[in-house]
């Protein structure tokens, strides 16, 4: 087990290094010059050159990348070109909001997705099953922006149950978490349905039934724990997929997380922030996958880590 | 029908000012303004966008200032000033008893320090170039000298600024944010974080900045102008989509949606008399234009450029953006001094345009590219221009890119045509000179410069320098006439097709009071925070 974890950690570090390299290359070759943005429209060529040299952007690519990595090792993510603030401080100020939203949204996803998936499996082939599966298809393909605005309009503007955007209380959390939850639940309900169907066909279920256990007991105590296994791996992968949804949902609901920060930075080509957010997201994905792999054997002893 | 409704709404809006002006200013209260993007920095030497521009104006002051809601200069931290006979030496007498927010008295040394700081290359100020008329600029800007030799403080209440050439725009430069006075010891203590913890002499002080959430500004009780500000505080909430901000404003939770009314909601808002009554319309020092790269075929021929000017149906483009602008005839907007009132511009005449193209040897038209920034409504405007050009045989492919990429292509000279919307040009200060140098003069027509047409007419550059050397206020009209002639000559050469001048529409809550001009203040967007008040 320790050897396995060590190997996975080394792998993870290499993945992060790769992500940082690819992002750095892409931003380096981008046809937009950050120095011109800093220097402003009235700048002379000398001013531009002076700022370029102060930021070290006149150095060869490999030197710039090396410097970035070296600073990164010391925990320095650089300073935003346009906001003139430490990228680390910007990320730290926004991470709690994103984590809170992510946890709440995953909870909504699981609650909605697993329940609907289980019901669909139990009613396999009947109209209810078809309706639920159609619903799951709609939810995964619905545009995030539209769903977010729709929920906002109905529940905040028309009904007045929740505040119109913002951050701070539990009431602020409900709509953004629900938006992400509804949008992501489709995947879970589909996986849950097929997983549940497999389990229901398995021999041990037939045995349990034969022993005379009632239907509810069979489903909750025997089928569900076994059907839920593939879902764990999915949650790990889901953290990665979340990032795209979070950018949109955070923007619509005015949720001060890193998705919103990323979106603003991309629009303004603020390279240090884009790098920082990319690395944090990559880290979250790697960590999510690692945790999923480590937790799986605790639930199913048949899985062994090598 | 839509048009009729809109004009009715506008008529309702015109009726508001008399009503609004009858209110007496009241003290107290808090106002909430929202924005989509984070506030970048409140360091006056660095902040350079319209969002932070007006907040910086409330936290700091310069030697000169503007009458609220107008483009008229008035004394600021300098009570008075004199100009030497040769037009080269300004002597500013500072106001007594002005204090920074940290309690320290502001002195002439602070003014000298602040001007030296903005020019110092280590500050990386985007405003550095504005100070080129001050003696010793070249050495200071290159980092070869310890500050500007032309700026001195003979005593604690006097600042003397010597220029290397007479410059009629100098007092405007002293009212620009980049000239605002900062306390040396705080700047040095905070370093690069000064923009997050600003200390100035202004009407408000920043008391809270939650990154990504909100900024709170509180009234400075020791402000040197007695009686203002009226508000106890104002809060800027960031991270809110314009459409959500509008919903909140309609719900009474927000006083001003800072990003304005989203284009998709504009007609709906203006068609509702109740909401339209809360919208203030005003001019803005802005022109939207199409640049044509004069250094490469086919736009190296003046006939082709004039043909493009005649091909564009400006009225229709104004319709495309729901009438939020007026058609433009020339580079200067109508609200700018020096605007040529009796010039009609190139008339919309596709037939004449076709004939001009044939004269230039392009009877069958040609293919080209039109670069445009990819945010609404700019791509829609580009499509309208594309259709108009198609009608005279010009096949323009639209290149819709992020702002930074369009600016890069314009600077590199690789874009044959650019629609300027969303990027340039809103004046930095209300003087005709500000629409020339960087965007039409030879200085801007270099690699990376903002003169995207790469148009360089040395005769006009000489005339521009001559006009700006007229510093005698008595000869102001003569100077404006010279600028008018310069822009008329530019229109002869037609490196641009001016398309429209944007109008401003500020939505405000019913409880906000203050002259309407404050809500469309030409130098404070969206509003002049120091002079608005809560009516209740």
The CATH first-level class of the largest domain in chain B comes to: Alpha Beta
What Rg of chain A, in angstroms, do the CA atoms define?
Answer: 24 Å
Oligomer: heterodimer
Instruction: Measure the end-to-end span of chain A.
Output: 7 Å
Tally of separate helices of chain B: 19
Count of DSSP E strands of chain A?
0
If you average the pLDDT of chain B, what whole number results?
91
Secondary-structure element string of chain A: HHHHHHHHHHHHH
Strand content of chain B: 15-25%
At CATH level 2, the architecture of the largest domain in chain B is: 3-Layer(aba) Sandwich
Q: Which range best describes the helical content of chain A: under 10%, 10-25%, 25-40%, 40-55%, 55-70% or over 70%?
A: over 70%
CATH superfamily of the largest domain in chain B: Periplasmic binding protein-like II
Profile the largest sheet of chain B: 6 strands, mixed
Number of domains of chain B: 2
Enumerate how many helices of chain A there are, as a single number: 13
Distance between the termini of chain B: 37 Å
Question: Largest sheet of chain A, if any?
Answer: none
Report the average pLDDT across residues of chain A: 87
Which fold name corresponds to the CATH topology of the largest domain in chain B? Answer: D-Maltodextrin-Binding Protein, domain 2
The rounded Rg of chain B comes to 24 Å
């Amino acid at each position: 087990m320790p050897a396995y974890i060590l190997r996975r950690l080394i792998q993870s570090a290499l993945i992060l290094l790769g992500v940082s390299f690819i992002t750095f290359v892409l931003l380096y070759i981008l046809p937009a010059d950050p120095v011109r943005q800093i220097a402003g429209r009235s700048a002379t060529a000398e001013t531009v050159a002076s700022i370029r040299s102060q930021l070290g952007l006149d150095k060869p690519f490999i030197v710039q990348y090396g410097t970035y990595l070296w600073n990164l090792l010391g925990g320095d993510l650089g300073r935003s070109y346009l906001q003139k603030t430490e990228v680390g401080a910007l990320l730290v100020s926004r991470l709690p909001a994103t984590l809170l939203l992510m946890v709440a949204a995953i909870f909504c996803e699981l609650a909605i997705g697993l329940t609907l998936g289980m019901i669909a499996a139990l009613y396999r082939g009947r109209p209810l099953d078809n309706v639920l599966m159609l619903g799951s298809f709609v939810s995964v393909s619905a545009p995030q922006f539209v769903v977010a605005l729709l929920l906002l309009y109905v529940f905040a503007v028309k009904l007045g149950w929740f505040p119109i955007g913002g951050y701070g209380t539990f009431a602020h959390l409900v709509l953004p978490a629900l938006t992400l939850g509804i949008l992501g639940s489709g995947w879970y309900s589909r996986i849950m349905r097929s997983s549940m169907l497999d389990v229901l066909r398995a021999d041990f279920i037939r045995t349990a039934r034969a022993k005379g256990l009632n239907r509810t007991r069979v489903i909750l105590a025997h089928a569900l724990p076994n059907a839920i296994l593939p879902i764990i791996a999915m949650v790990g992968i889901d953290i990665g997929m979340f990032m795209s949804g979070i950018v949109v949902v955070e923007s619509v609901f005015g949720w001060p997380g890193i998705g919103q920060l990323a979106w603003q930075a991309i629009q303004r080509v603020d390279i240090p922030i884009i790098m920082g957010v990319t690395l944090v997201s990559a880290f979250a994905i790697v960590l999510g996958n690692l945790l999923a792999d480590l937790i799986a054997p605790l639930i199913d002893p048949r899985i062994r880590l090598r | 029908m839509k048009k009729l409704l809109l004009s009715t709404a506008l008529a309702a809006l015109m009726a508001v000012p008399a009503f609004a002006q009858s209110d007496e200013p009241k003290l107290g209260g808090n106002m909430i303004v929202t924005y989509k993007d984070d506030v970048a920095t409140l360091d006056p030497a660095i902040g350079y966008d319209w969002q932070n521009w007006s907040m910086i104006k409330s936290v700091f002051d310069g030697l000169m200032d503007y009458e609220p809601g107008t483009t008229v200069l008035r004394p600021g931290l300098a009570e008075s000033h004199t100009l030497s006979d040769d037009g080269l030496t300004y002597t500013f007498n500072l106001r007594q008893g002005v204090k920074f927010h940290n309690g320290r008295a502001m002195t002439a040394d602070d003014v000298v320090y602040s001007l030296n700081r903005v020019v110092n290359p280590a500050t990386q100020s985007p405003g550095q170039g504005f100070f080129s008329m001050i003696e010793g600029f070249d050495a200071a800007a290159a980092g070869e000298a310890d500050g500007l030799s032309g700026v001195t403080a003979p005593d604690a209440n006097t600042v003397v600024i010597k220029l290397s050439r007479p410059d009629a725009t100098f007092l405007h430069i002293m009212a620009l944010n980049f000239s605002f006075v900062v306390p040396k010891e705080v700047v040095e203590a905070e370093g690069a974080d000064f923009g997050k913890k600003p200390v100035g002499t202004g009407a408000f002080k920043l008391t809270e900045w939650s990154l990504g959430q909100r900024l709170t500004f509180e009234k400075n009780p020791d402000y040197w102008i007695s009686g203002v500000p009226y508000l106890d505080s104002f809060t800027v909430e960031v991270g809110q989509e314009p459409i959500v901000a509008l919903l909140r404003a309609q719900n009474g939770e927000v006083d001003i949606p800072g990003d304005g009314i989203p284009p998709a909601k504009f007609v709906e808002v203006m068609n509702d008399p109740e909401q339209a009554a809360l919208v203030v319309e005003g001019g803005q020092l802005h022109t939207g234009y199409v640049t044509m790269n004069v250094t490469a075929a086919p736009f190296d021929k003046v006939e082709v450029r004039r043909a493009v000017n005649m091909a564009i149906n400006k009225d229709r483009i104004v319709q495309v953006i729901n009438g939020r602008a007026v058609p433009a005839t020339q580079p200067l907007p109508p609200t700018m001094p020096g605007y040529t009132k009796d010039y009609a511009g190139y008339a919309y005449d596709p037939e004449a345009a076709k004939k001009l193209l044939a004269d230039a040897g392009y009877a069958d038209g040609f293919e080209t590219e039109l670069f445009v920034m990819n945010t609404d409504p700019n791509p829609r405007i580009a499509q309208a221009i594309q259709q108009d050009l198609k009608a005279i045989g010009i096949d323009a492919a639209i290149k819709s890119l992020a702002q930074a990429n369009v600016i890069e292509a314009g600077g590199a000279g690789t874009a044959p045509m650019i629609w300027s919307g969303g990027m340039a040009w809103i004046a930095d200060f209300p003087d005709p000179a500000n629409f020339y140098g960087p965007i039409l003069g030879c200085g801007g027509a270099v690699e990376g410069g903002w003169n995207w047409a790469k148009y360089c007419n040395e005769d006009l550059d000489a005339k521009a320098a001559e006009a700006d050397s007229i510093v005698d206020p008595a000869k102001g009209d003569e100077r404006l006439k010279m600028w008018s002639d310069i822009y008329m000559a530019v229109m002869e050469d037609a490196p641009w097709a001016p398309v429209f001048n944007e109008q401003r529409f500020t939505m405000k809550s019913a409880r906000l009071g203050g002259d309407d001009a404050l809500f469309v203040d030409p130098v404070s967007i969206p509003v002049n925070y120091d002079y608005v008040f809560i009516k209740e």
